[in-house]
Amino acid sequence: MSAGRVHRPETLEEATALLGELDDVMVYGGGTAIQILRKQGLLFTEDYVDIAGIPGLRDLTVTDDDITIGTLVPLRRVETDPRTRRLVPVAAAAYGQAANPRVRNTASAGGNIAHGDYRLDPPTALVVLDATVHLASAAGSREVAVREFFTDFQETDVRHGEMITAITVPRQPDGSRSSFVKMRSLSENDWPCASAAVLAVPEDGFVEIRMGLGAVAPTTVYLAFDVTPDMDEQQAVEAALDIADSVMDPIADIRGSASYKARLGRVAVEQAVRSSLKELSRD
Amino acid sequence: MTEVLPDAQPAGTRQAETEPRYGVGERRKRFDALGRVRGTIRYTGDEANPPGTAFVGVHRSTAPHARIVAVHTEDALAIEGVLAVVTGRDLHEVLGDRIYTGPAFADQPCLAVDKTRFVGEAIAAVLATDPDIARAAADEIAVEYEELPPVYDIDDALRGEAFVHEELRPSSVFADLAHLHGVRGTNVNYEYRQILGDAAAERERAATTVSATTWAPPTHHVPIELPSTSAWVDSGRLEMLSTTQTPSYVRQTVSDLLDIPLSRVRIMTRPLGGSFGCKMYDRLEPLAAALAWTTGRRVRIDATREDAFLLTTRHGARVTGSMSADADGNIVAVTSDVRYDTGAFADVGPRIAAKSGLVAPGPYRIAAVDVRSRCIYTNKVSAGPFRGFGVPQVTWSHETLIDELARELGEDPYRFRRRHLLREGDIATVGTKMHSADFLTCIDEVTKAVGWDDPTPRGDGRWVHGKGVAVGMKAVLTPTIANATLNLNQDGSATLLISTVDMGQGSDTIMSQIVGEVLCLDSRRIHVVRADTDATPYDTITAGSRSTYHTGNAVRLVAEAMRSKLLGFAAERWGVPADELVLDAQGVVHEAKELRDSLPDLVRAKFGARGATVTTAENFTSWWVPYDHDTGLSEKVTEHWFAGAAAVRLAVDTWTGRIRTQHLAIAGDVGRAINPTLVEQQLTGAAIMGIGHTLFDEMVFDQGQITNATMLDYQLPSIKDLPEKLTPVIVESAHRDGPFGAKGVGETTILPIAPAYAGAVRDACGVRITTLPLTPERVLNHLADAADPGKAGR
């Protein structure tokens, strides 16, 4: 394993310049994924741009409408910050179940989604909340809806020369209720076999059910449907399972067969939908 | 890194009488607990590398079974910083067939010579100035293979079409294997039989028979500390610092490998950061010795986490067994066909096949048994010792059988076992009398702890609840040898020299407690020297829970010899018979004449010097009666027995198959707890490891290649996987010959965990699972089969 070159820019401009100039280059944030992949001989990138020295990337800012998570904010902070817990509880819940506390203290919010793994927990919450990813390059900046961000298996919309600077997450709508459920097949600390973030948004007698599913398809999946006033909880669950079934395409591995993972996906969806609707009915 | 010692008590004061001495039976923290937690202990890999050290990178085989046609080393040699590249053929030219080492069979080349036998076998070694260069250069080596038919598993091996080794080559270590020399055309390197009565006839006559084929997969030890070995030549001697549980064995192996006297080999150790059997016998040491000796360089080999998975595993084992009862419910017959997959090298597999085969019927009163236990070569990573030494795999069988037999007869699994368990003085099926193996108290205590007779919750439709119980029986490795040398220092402290390796089990702490108890010293004033074959005496191995009993006895004897010697000094000084003298916490005393001397004064008076030392040395060797040639029986097959039990209450999620442990209780008969705190920790630690083996711990192979040899994919129990409640129970049925009645404890409670869980799953949802681990998917598949009328009753 070669050591790789590490660049330590002090401004965003320097960083994006490096990312644009260098051929085989990767942003180094918390390092939790990069270190493992390098150690396993799966990642041979030559140049790393360590963005730890760039000011402002660690900020977590709140406005009347949303909350913006700087790319270097540790997952643990999204999990535990009182503002995220209050304003985007489904995100706090999902971030709080990634890996283990040591990893969450180190891994960064931007690096997490840049990794693009189909099993990640945080993206399930980000898609139901309709978050926006902020990208910067030497040419300027752009925004991408997180629902469009995960393009294919282990692939994202981050282009050569770009880096994630922040994620903006709209506040959970007033009166909405949410739930995050993660199913593991082996150790309790393991990657998920299936996960589901559900946000139930009541509106004019209808309830919009938004679902983000992790680990059950090559990318994070976003789904939504309306629970009409004539449907009871059981019918809502069945509708959710029907629509979830249509997208489930799990990958078999040592953690389970495709059919078992799909089953866990259904359990996660059912639990999360029921839990959200129960919360709603209590209001 | 050690506890801060109190100042020495002023000589002769009475005050010391009330001070704690932390002797036998007292709770004392490990002497190095703080250092282990804070990371201030120096482990083997922490030692600095002197200038000139060559770091070793290993090129590993990508073929499961193949002839090595050529090894191309030019590209590796061209890399800057590469000092040398060594192949198996290079070493074979110098060392000849001595390159083949191993505790049972000389079948393990430190670098493959003419063929490779598993994916991951070491083929060539790069010596370089830097470890990263060494690893990168190892990747540049290219090997030409001529593929041979692979032997992936036990079935392939027994088909007898391809052979992992052309002929069997017993090593010189075990005399009883000599008759296997030169045997060709087999993958079975050892077979143990146990024949008691006529099991076939008894089974024929029996009222009820249950049968099961069980599978326990290979698993890995995953100690926190990775293996590391440094070796160098100093004044014509081979010196080595290595992570090993078996320094005395390694010394002999290196002596044989290099054909030099034992006096020219030195093996040094440091405390181990866990091992569980993976740092034993021939790991990195033969390669390090061969490279240092043939190149003259100081070499260092560090295993990566991924390498460690390729060094050794636990044996996967399949057991096909049956258990039969007569109309009164007496167990009249047990049959057991045990097949251990030992991988490419026998390692200590033949011993495992025998020592586990002999307890395969279980710790019960059984009229007739027929056991066949085989150790079988395959083209996989070599399997070796692992906490439990093969016994968890056969316990998985006999406890599955008796649980199912109890249910078949409509009896309670706890009370049915209790009725048939071996009692003190009973003869086990292997022919040896039982002593100090209190199964009844163990099973009574664990069932009591989990409230066995309390009603089981009905559950909510999704979660169902159940309870399970199991016992486990193991024989201590016999015969073995332990030696101890004790230096009493003039100031009344002592230095103990033994070759037991402290790997976290706390041996250094309890050995000092034994010395302190005999000599009435504060055990914290006794230092135990790390195993170093230039200084510490021969000890068979630190493994198999043998040290407390064997080395503990040598330590007790050496302390008693010291006491006699000290009383002799006082007798000579005062002109009185030694048998009128007593040693107490203040020193030597003659009550009638009111004579008293502290140890410091006594030793100083004897030698006329401060800092003088008094030395004693003792040996303890256990003995056995070898297995009868035809029946495998022995009237003394072991020095002592381990008896353990587990009871569990759990819930199964019928939606996902996931198991949640509500309460696990474990008990082990330890004879006498030298240090109850450390005993409870051993009982608990073994149980947690057993939980991993029960629920998800497994090395997954695909065509001979491990597919989950990383810490991302290999699963271990995390803190969140522990039972909601875990109760360790110490049972003390003193052994007549144990040091203060004590026996070992490290493996006892790993034995019964898996069958206790499987019994509880059976109780909760009516399915009997015989394949480990009990993954949620496996549980769910069984539930689905049970619900499917076409498959029910399988």
From TrEMBL, chain A:
Transmembrane segments: none annotated. Pfam families: CO_deh_flav_C, FAD_binding_5. SMART domains: CO_deh_flav_C. Residues 1-174 form the FAD-binding PCMH-type domain. Keywords: FAD, Flavoprotein, Oxidoreductase. This is FAD-binding PCMH-type domain-containing protein. It comes from Streptomyces graminofaciens.
